[in-house]
Design goal:
The chain is an alpha+beta fold. 35% of the residues lie in helices and 14% in strands.
């Protein structure tokens, strides 16, 4: 079998503009691979891009957006965007664009291979396992797939997807030094951080099909809070990068979406890729990049302000794998006016620029208030000094764009406050679990944690459904009351189940110290406290329906408990 150490030496080509390699899901539920040209030509027939991992999907969507931004040379403003949105054939222009830059989209080009560095080599001409770019087998250990013990070979289509993913999400850690990289010491380059997207709590907006998704995320050049330089270019329109890296400031989203955070080169033969050389590329610190990066929320970091002596520092707000997207809704829809630090004009959090852009579209009437979008949240959580991927986050929330309206914040505020309702109700349930443990003479926090997890799980589906209909409601405050009553019913039912399962010891109870003397704590008293806490947490939503509240508070097997 012939082998090649240099891309192009076998006369091979894999043209990403015409060869299928992007995995997509059609509206009819069928999955297939398409070329870049086909993805844009058929975007209206496709549900979304898919990938080997959610992070791969995120990286590929950003690549498609960079192509669209460059092909359209914008859009410059909302008016240009509106013309695209209302033109079913708007992506026809992308086909001509791909023809113009076709050579730069050749994965195996001899001099300028796509997202790679021709001639990249180590001092010893080592060729490493493809494990180094396949994120589901970090350091040879299985993560999300059953690839064992190593990835010995990839077809060109799959290799191309992992090349894009490596620039976005490659782990940190010590990497092999490549010839010509001044950062190499003793054949090694010490940790310089993860790929750019690995710093982010990624957020993008999905429409009813891929065409809508791409256009909804196509932010205009005049979007407030974002900087676009006149020379903003994607990686394939820049001179091919040599070994080493360059510290510089991104020129805009085209540059940032295709940021070359790594230097890599595939080793291939006629049948596919069998090895790789991977090193560090252009470093990029996430501090205060909110003026360039629209696909993440941001948090103010006082620690970074002190460390760097800067008055204001924002860092990407990463996703918590243990916290579903609906519980972090405020980071997505609360705008600067709704989240200002007390006594300061600087907000603690900034919602993603993508959602600021959607807010502008709905506020200026380009999108109807009832238009539904899905806010997708994607991110990687790294471990062991960012040298391995521990978890991948992938979640979504369907909401009406009315929640993002800049001048009509009541809907967004009620949606955020509804999450607080759930949090406080779940806290009351956790307190009940603790009280029942104490009544039984036990000191174990596990039931409290389990009760909280069960409650959040029970509330997640109802909240998502409630949220999707909130934007079309006439009165958001009335809908908030509807939600509070639903939370009361669900959490009260879970509380009765806890009481029923508490056992004989909790039913009998025991003397417990109190603020004034002592109290006989048993299941009955624990229920009374729980009912009181739950009512206060939810603003006593059944205060005008006392019979319903009484029925909810007294149902279940634990009626036999005596105070």
């Amino acid at each position: 079998m012939p082998e090649s150490s240099e891309l192009g030496s076998l006369g091979l080509s894999f043209d990403l503009t015409t060869r299928p390699w992007v995995e997509v899901l059609r509206l009819d539920g069928v999955q297939e691979e398409l070329s870049l040209r086909e993805v844009f030509a058929r975007a209206g027939e496709l549900r979304r891009v898919t990938g080997d991992l959610p992070t791969q999907e995120f990286a590929l969507v950003r690549l498609l957006l960079a192509i669209a931004h460059d092909a359209f040379e914008g859009p410059a403003d909302v008016e240009e965007w509106s013309l695209l949105w209302n033109d079913p054939q708007c992506f026809n222009r992308v086909g001509d664009y791909l023809d113009t830059y076709r050579d730069r989209f050749d994965l195996l080009h001899a001099k300028a291979p796509f997202f790679q560095t021709a001639g990249l080599r180590t001092a010893k001409d080592e060729v490493f396992s493809l494990n180094r770019i396949v994120a589901d087998v970090p350091n040879g250990e299985p993560f999300f797939t059953a690839r064992m013990p190593a990835v010995s070979r990839l077809g060109f289509a799959e290799a191309a997807r992992w090349v894009v993913h490596a620039h976005a999400y490659d782990t940190s850690g010590i990497k092999s030094g490549v010839e010509g990289d001044p950062r190499a010491k003793g054949g090694k380059v010490y940790p310089l951080g993860v790929g750019w997207a690995g710093n982010l709590g990624g957020v993008f907006v999905e429409g009813r099909n891929l065409r809508e998704t791409l256009l909804l995320n196509l932010v205009a050049d005049d979007t407030g809070g974002l900087r676009f330089e006149s020379g903003d270019l994607p990686a394939w329109r820049r001179e091919p990068r040599g070994p080493g890296g360059m510290e510089r400031t991104p020129t805009g989203v085209r540059d940032l979406y295709t940021w070359q955070s790594r230097r890599l080169r595939l080793h291939v033969d006629a049948e596919g890729a069998y090895g790789v050389v991977l090193g560090y590329g252009d470093p990029l610190h996430p501090r205060n990049r909110h003026v360039h990066e629209p696909m993440t929320a941001w948090r103010r970091s006082e620690a970074q302000e002190k460390k760097h002596g800067e008055a204001l520092v924002y860092m990407p707000r990463e996703h918590d794998p243990e916290r579903s997207a609906w519980r972090g809704l405020d980071s997505l829809i609360a705008d600067r006016a709704q989240d200002a630090t007390t006594g300061s004009d600087a907000p603690r959090f900034l919602r993603p620029g993508i959602l600021e852009w959607i807010a502008r579209l709905v506020t200026e009437g380009e999108l109807p208030r009832g238009f539904l979008v899905r806010a997708r949240t994607v991110g990687a959580r790294y471990g062991t000094q960012q040298s391995v991927v521990d978890e991948v986050v992938d979640d979504h929330l369907t909401m009406a764009v009315a929640l993002l309206h800049r001048q009509d914040r009541e809907y967004a505020q009620q949606a955020i406050d509804a999450v607080t309702d759930a949090d406080q109700a779940v806290r009351a349930l956790g307190d009940l679990a603790s009280d029942l443990q104490r009544a039984a003479g036990k000191d174990n926090d596990s039931p409290r944690v389990a009760a909280r997890d069960r409650a959040f799980g029970a509330l997640e589906g109802p909240y998502r459904m409630w949220l999707s209909g909130l934007g079309s409601a006439d009165d958001p405050y009335e809908q908030r009351t509807v939600w509070q009553r639903q939370v009361y019913r669900i959490v009260a039912g879970l509380g009765e189940r806890l009481i029923a399962d508490a056992g004989e010891a909790a039913w009998q109870g025991r003397t417990m110290p109190a603020k004034q003397g002592s109290v006989w704590l048993n299941s009955s008293l624990a229920r009374m406290w729980f009912t009181s806490r739950l009512g206060k947490a939810l603003g006593n939503p059944y205060s005008d329906q006392s019979s319903d509240a009484a029925a909810l508070a007294s149902t279940g097997p634990s009626q036999k408990v005596q105070a």
